[in-house]
């Protein structure tokens, strides 16, 4: 039963040994013997002392006596087993019964030596136990390393930011880590045995199958591809993944010892944020971020392609240049945030007017361009333009503001208006400026004659600043006549430009240019000052009380120093404030700005009166007539000129006059050219008229020549 001494056996290196015996002399004898052979030996006397020592320290071997009075060796063995002691126990006991030996071995004893024992036998048994203990410890260390390694690998697999998977020869899942649940909502167990293609988006499925089939080709070991994978739920958003797959060597341990046929190992990395960022960058490069419409670059790309197709198929296409009327006024008065929201609302209305294959873009600022490929004829483009004009004429409700705008639309048709990209865009822009300069809110097709107008506009832009410096601007005066007495009520100051090459120009041609480059401020200031000086000279010549009316641009009125400048002009010129009337446009009042109200009220407190010019052509509202300190309405000439036709315009004029009388406002009618018009207006109760019937605008000298007996109280107008 005990180990037999083998002389050739290598002696084990020293180990830690605990000798347990109730016989002190025996325990010390064993200690001395083992110490002589290089072991580290402790001794305790009795079973209880043994248990205490084992709880305090670790030992490789325990030499244990069975028969001990306080606690026998069998109890110590059982305690060692129950508490997971990894020390090997050699029983050294005088007990010889088979039952004691059997019980000791069942309780975990390594070997059993009977007392008295031979020294060599004891040393051989100890040496063998020590060697086994070292082998056992080494094995435990390796096992622990394997367990830790497996735990580490499992942790890395399960906590990987990527989906890790293994496919069998049929392309079905054999393994999946838990990441797929967090990214796509599938449990790894539910996909085992399912084909990889089952989680691929239908649009990418054919590409995925081709990609995996290619892994079977000779020489293919690793490949990558970007795919769109679908979540388990219909509500789960699709995600973009970068797939990297490797073929598993059929001779590898994984392939040989697996119950499945592992063939492909792969990882799927979620690159959705990266793809979305790239898509957003690309979107920014070719779209306007505010309206999300194509930008200028994308519009030009699509136009270039459309021109090529039109050339190949002998088709027509149209390019529209759309500029919003009154947008600058709204943007300046309500702020850029409201302006941005208006542009977004306009873009949505415009989109409803175009076909699926058309391209609407925001070209910049308040300008839009529209590409209409494959149109049958020029009228088709004009019809779309009219549809757009109808769509945007309805008011826009933005943040409790009712906003009205119009549009000026220029149309260039390929190939008549140009056979290349630059020509079509330029000529559509030229046509747009033609309609804007002619009164806005309409559309027109480009024709060759318009090129001359563009060259003229460019020249005027260059010459305008010089014109102010060279005093080329001239004030003309048109009489304002009282309808009851036909006496001269006053004059309206109108600016004209005596251009050295083009002759005398009307405000309709150069005022829009002046407003665009802000020179209108200098023009308005100069006009107001000089007109006050001219009429004040008439006052001083014995004609006091003659009224002066001056039209001011919204750009001038919106300036912070507007009121101060008017006050300073009156003081410098000595002109009486109660004889001055300033004319402003309806558009200036539409947006209900508190600062504009305050400015106008400041002017009326100074004694000035305020008139709305061209009343009825804008988007009139009774609310602003009550809110703003307006004293006069000027009926636009477009209504007056049609009075003799007995149409709806006559009703409109009558309604305006009745409304003004109800609001206790004075009425001035513009564009009176016929006696019948004058008589009709006088019958309605219109207060003052002006027009060619009483004289065209002219210089102060011409006015004095027409009214040689000029007085403020009753000079009759010429017949």
From TrEMBL:
Alphabetical GO biological process terms: phosphorelay signal transduction system; regulation of DNA-templated transcription
Domain PAS: 149-206
Keyword flag Mitochondrion: no
SMART domains: EAL, GGDEF, PAS, REC
CDD domains recorded: EAL, GGDEF, PAS
Domain EAL residues, every copy: 457-711
Domain of life, source organism: Bacteria
Swiss-Prot/TrEMBL keywords: Phosphoprotein
Location of 4-aspartylphosphate modifications: 65
Residue ranges of domain Response regulatory in the record: 16-130
Recorded GO MF terms: catalytic activity
Chain ranges of the GGDEF domain: 315-448
Cofactor: Mg(2+)
SUPFAM superfamilies: CheY-like (SSF52172), EAL domain-like (SSF141868), Nucleotide cyclase (SSF55073), PYP-like sensor domain (PAS domain) (SSF55785)
Keyword Phosphoprotein: yes
InterPro entries for the chain: Biofilm_reg_signaling, CheY-like_superfamily, EAL_dom, EAL_sf, GGDEF_dom, Nucleotide_cyclase, PAS, PAS-like_dom_sf
Name of protein: Diguanylate cyclase
Organism: Pseudohongiella spirulinae
Lineage: Bacteria, Pseudomonadati, Pseudomonadota, Gammaproteobacteria, Pseudomonadales
């Amino acid at each position: 039963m005990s180990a037999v001494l083998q002389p050739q056996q290598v002696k084990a290196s020293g180990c830690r040994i605990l000798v347990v015996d109730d016989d002190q002399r025996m325990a010390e004898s064993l200690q001395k013997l083992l110490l002589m052979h290089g072991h580290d030996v402790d001794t305790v006397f009795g079973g209880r002392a043994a248990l205490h020592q084992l709880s305090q320290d670790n030992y490789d071997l325990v030499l244990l006596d069975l028969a001990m009075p306080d606690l026998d060796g069998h109890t110590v063995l059982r305690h060692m087993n129950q508490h997971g002691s990894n020390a090997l126990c050699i029983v050294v006991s005088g007990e010889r019964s088979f039952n004691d030996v059997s019980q000791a071995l069942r309780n975990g004893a390594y070997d059993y030596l009977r007392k008295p024992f031979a020294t060599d036998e004891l040393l051989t048994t100890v040496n063998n136990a020590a060697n086994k203990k070292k082998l056992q410890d080494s094995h435990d260390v390796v096992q622990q390393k394997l367990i830790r390694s497996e735990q580490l690998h499992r942790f890395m697999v399960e906590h990987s930011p990527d989906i890790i998977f293994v496919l069998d020869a049929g392309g079905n899942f054999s393994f999946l880590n838990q990441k797929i649940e967090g990214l796509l909502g599938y449990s790894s167990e539910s996909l085992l045995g399912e084909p990889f293609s089952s989680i691929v988006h239908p649009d990418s499925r054919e590409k995925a199958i081709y990609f995996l089939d290619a892994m079977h080709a000779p020489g293919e070991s690793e490949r990558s591809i970007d795919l769109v994978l679908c979540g388990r739920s219909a509500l789960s958003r699709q995600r973009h993944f970068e797939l990297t797959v490797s073929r598993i060597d059929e001779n590898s341990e994984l392939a040989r010892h697996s119950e499945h046929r592992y063939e492909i190992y792969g990882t799927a990395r979620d690159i959705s944020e990266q793809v979305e960022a790239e898509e957003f960058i690309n979107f920014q490069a070719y779209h306007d971020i505010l309206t999300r419409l194509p930008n200028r670059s994308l519009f030009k790309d699509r136009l270039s392609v459309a021109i090529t197709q039109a050339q190949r198929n002998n088709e027509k296409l149209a390019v529209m240049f759309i500029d919003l009327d009154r947008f600058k006024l709204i943007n300046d008065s309500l702020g850029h945030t409201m302006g941005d929201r208006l542009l977004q609302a306009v873009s949505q209305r415009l989109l409803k007017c175009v076909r699926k294959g058309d391209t609407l873009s925001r070209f910049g600022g308040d300008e839009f361009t529209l590409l209409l490929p494959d149109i049958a004829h020029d009228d088709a483009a004009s019809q779309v333009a009219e549809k757009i004009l109808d769509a945007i004429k309805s008011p826009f409700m933005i943040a409790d503001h009712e906003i009205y705008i119009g549009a000026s639309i220029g149309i260039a048709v390929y190939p008549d208006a140009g056979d290349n990209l630059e020509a079509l865009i330029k000529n559509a822009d030229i046509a747009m400026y033609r309609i804007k300069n002619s009164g806005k809110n309409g559309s027109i097709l480009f024709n060759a004659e318009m090129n001359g107008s563009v060259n003229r506009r460019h020249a005027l832009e260059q010459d305008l600043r010089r014109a102010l410096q060279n005093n080329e601007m001239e004030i003309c005066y048109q009489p304002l006549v009282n309808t009851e007495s036909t006496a001269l009520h006053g004059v309206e100051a109108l600016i004209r430009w005596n251009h050295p090459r083009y002759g005398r120009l009307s405000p309709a041609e150069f005022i829009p240019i002046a407003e665009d480059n802000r020179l209108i401020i200098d023009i308005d200031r100069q006009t107001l000052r000089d007109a006050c000086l001219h009429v004040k000279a008439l006052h001083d010549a014995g004609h006091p009380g003659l009224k002066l009316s001056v039209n001011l641009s919204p750009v001038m009125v919106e300036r912070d120093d507007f009121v101060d400048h008017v006050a300073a002009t009156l003081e410098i010129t000595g002109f009486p404030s109660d004889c001055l009337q300033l004319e402003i446009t309806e558009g200036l009042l539409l947006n209900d700005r508190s600062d504009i109200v305050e400015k106008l009220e400041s002017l009326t407190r100074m004694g000035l009166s305020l008139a709305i010019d061209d009343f009825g052509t804008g988007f009139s509202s009774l609310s602003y007539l009550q809110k703003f300190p307006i004293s006069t309405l000027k009926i636009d000439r477009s209504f007056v000129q049609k009075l003799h036709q007995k149409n709806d315009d006559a009703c409109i004029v009558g309604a305006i006059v009745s409304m003004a009388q109800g609001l206790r406002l004075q009425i001035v009618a513009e564009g009176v050219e016929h006696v019948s018009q004058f008589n009709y207006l006088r019958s309605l109760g219109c207060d003052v008229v002006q027009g060619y019937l009483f004289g065209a605008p002219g210089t102060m000298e011409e006015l004095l020549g027409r009214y040689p007996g000029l007085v403020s109280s009753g000079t009759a107008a010429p017949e």
